[in-house]
Design brief:
By secondary structure, the protein is an alpha/beta fold. Among the domains are: 9-105, Orthogonal Bundle (Fumarate Reductase Iron-sulfur Protein, Chain B, domain 2); 306-425, Rossmann fold, CATH 3.40.50. It has helices at 15-19, 32-37, 44-55, 63-70, 77-81, 88-101, 107-121, 124-138, 141-149, 156-163, 196-200, 202-214, 230-234, 238-251, 263-270, 272-275, 283-292, 296-303, 321-324, 331-338, 361-364, 366-383, 393-406, 415-425, and strands at residues 187-191, 217-220, 258-260, 293-295, 310-317, 341-346, 387-390, 411-414. α10 (156-163) packs across α23 (393-406), α12 packs across α24 and α18 packs across α20. The N and C termini lie far apart (70 Å). Bound molecules: iron/sulfur cluster (SF4) (2 copies). The site of one iron/sulfur cluster (SF4) has 14 residues, from α2, α3 and α5.
């Protein structure tokens, strides 16, 4: 048998997936990294061509080749517009698994990243201990005072991370915690609590449960669930992502819908069937689990309850990539916002272009991430929204940094928070 050109043949991108691309280039203008660089090698077509060339043994897997894949945000905007149905998300996850396994000059930082993703992000108690000081700092008086003074006290890379912290992180909400209960519950649903989401955005989870409770749905943060594995898969650690998927499948049996308010987690969990398709013990259960997963906006819009609430604000909704491109959910969040009295929904240019957060991308590719954040800030400056609404914690953090850096006076909210605030102001009769 011929030896594979890939260092991890079991997880190599499939030749069938790669050959589906007909090089038409219709995806290129949807690609944020092409928009910033103008380079073919930083476009989806270029990245697929490189993977195919490696797969066919035409070129070796060099550091230069890997760098083009590393700059990919895995936003999947290209996949959503591809007329040939190229599964770019699947291709790039398998390509990243090869990059992670290949010898590299920057092996030490890669190893550290993998260690942290496995031993901090995926371990709830460790993550809670690590995030606690950041959560305290995010809402603290010294932080507010330093912001007011305009003092630059951190090196630029750390300053960008600090700027991403939410202004008012709520109390954490973790698996097993109690949630608002409806007066009369007609149905139950699992609330997926996640990892960073539960630690830094407990308020979003509570808002999600409140919105559901007003619609007669009791949300339960079932104990034993944990990180979805999306960050690990995107970083090329497919083996660990599979472990995390199995843990969630074991922890969340039954038929109740699983409500996810983080677009990245929802997209990953809807693809558990694909992730575990070669696992004879889990393949069927993974597919059944994936079929229960619903994004918050998808679930609430389908309940079709009469509009309620009051939200007197100019609102710019920004698509989260893994909601718009991976889950193809664009209209439901907009429809929910449009239905609220007083809500003036404005479409900003590039609303569905990646903000540059992309999981841990803003930490490992800070230059491209900052370029995309600036594009968003420019759009906000032009359209002057009062509130920026999105549906993913990483995007929320990136928009916090964008408005802060650009001196824009706008609140950043999750869709669930906006609906909850509106409905608290003017409850359903
Ligand atoms: S990925 Fe799709 S849209 Fe892009 S070049 Fe290939 S076939 Fe065309
Ligand atoms: S996933 Fe996003 S950044 Fe990567 S090639 Fe596709 S459009 Fe470009």
């Amino acid at each position: 048998m011929a030896s594979s050109p890939w260092p991890l043949p079991a997880d190599a991108p499939s030749a069938a997936d790669l050959s589906r691309c007909v090089h038409c280039g219709l995806c290129i203008n949807a690609c944020p990294t092409f928009a910033v660089t103008g380079l073919e090698a930083e476009s989806p077509r270029g990245r697929i061509a490189l993977a195919r060339a490696v797969d066919e043994g035409v070129i070796p897997l060099t550091a230069a080749v890997q760098s083009h894949w590393d700059l990919c945000l895995q936003c999947r905007a290209c996949e959503a517009v591809c007329p040939s149905g190229v599964a770019y998300g699947r291709i790039i996850e398998h390509v990243k698994a090869q990059v992670a396994a290949a010898p590299a000059k920057d092996a030490a930082p890669r190893r550290l990243r993998r260690f942290l993703l496995r031993n901090v992000v995926a371990r709830p108690r460790v993550l809670a201990a690590v995030v606690a000081p950041a959560r305290w700092w995010a809402g603290s008086l010294p932080r507010r005072a330093l912001r007011k003074s305009g003092a630059k006290w951190l090196p630029s890379r750390l300053a960008a991370m600090e700027a991403q912290l939410p202004r008012h992180p709520g109390r954490p909400l973790r698996a097993g915690d109690s949630l608002p209960v409806p007066g009369e519950a007609s149905t139950e649903a699992v609330l997926f609590t996640g990892c960073v989401m539960g630690e830094l955005f407990g308020g979003v989870h509570r808002a999600t449960a409140s919105v559901l409770a007003r619609r007669g749905v009791r949300a339960i943060a079932v104990e034993g669930q944990g990180c979805c594995g999306a960050l690990h898969a995107h970083d090329g650690d497919l083996a660990f992502a599979r472990d995390l998927a199995r843990r969630n499948i074991d922890a969340l049996p039954g038929d109740d819908p699983i409500i996810v308010n983080s677009a990245g987690c929802g997209a990953a969990m809807k693809e558990y069937g694909q992730l575990l398709h070669a696992d004879p013990r889990y393949a069927d259960r993974a597919a059944a689990f994936a079929a229960r997963v619903r994004d918050f906006s998808e679930f609430v819009a389908a309940l079709d309850t009469p509009a309620a609430g009051h939200f007197p604000a100019r609102v710019a909704y920004q698509d989260a990539c893994h909601l718009a491109h991976a889950q193809r959910i664009r209209e439901q969040p907009r429809a929910l916002l449009r239905a609220i009295a007083g809500c003036d929904l404005v479409e900003t240019p590039g609303a569905d272009l990646c903000c540059g957060a992309a999981g841990i991308y803003s930490l490992v590719e800070p230059g491209m991430s900052a370029a995309l954040r600036t594009r968003k800030a420019d759009a906000f400056r032009d359209s002057a929204p009062d509130v920026i609404v999105t549906a993913n914690p990483g995007c929320q953090m990136q928009y916090e940094a964008a408005v802060r850096e650009a001196g824009i006076d706008a609140r950043v909210m999750h869709l669930a928070e906006a609906l909850d605030e509106a409905e608290r102001r003017a409850p359903r009769a």
